[in-house]
Amino acid sequence: MASKDSNSKFYSAFSLIAAIGAAAVAKKALNTSWQAATGKKPPENPADPDVSIGEAVMWATLSGTLIGVARMLATRRAAHYYARSTGHLPGQLQKDGQRAR
Known about the structure:
By secondary structure, this protein is mainly alpha-helical. It has one domain. It is built from 2 helices and no strands. α1 runs antiparallel to α2. The longest helix is centred in the first third of the chain and has 35 residues. The mean pLDDT is 86.
């Protein structure tokens, strides 16, 4: 049986790969959706003064939210897979005290 330390490293690598993959897929979907909705390519740099403030805020809000949610869902899925495979959650996922009392 693998040691707890190697299991922890496996989970860290697995969740990182899942999060990066999910972020890439989300970014591709967001870019495609943005172009379909606006008829323009998404801003490469929302901080550029040539990008309108409204467009910059909208892009930052949408991209931050979508990519963050995709990464979170992928990381949760990785934790679920890890727990199913090993019978326990990885050490990094300690209970955070948010359960109802």
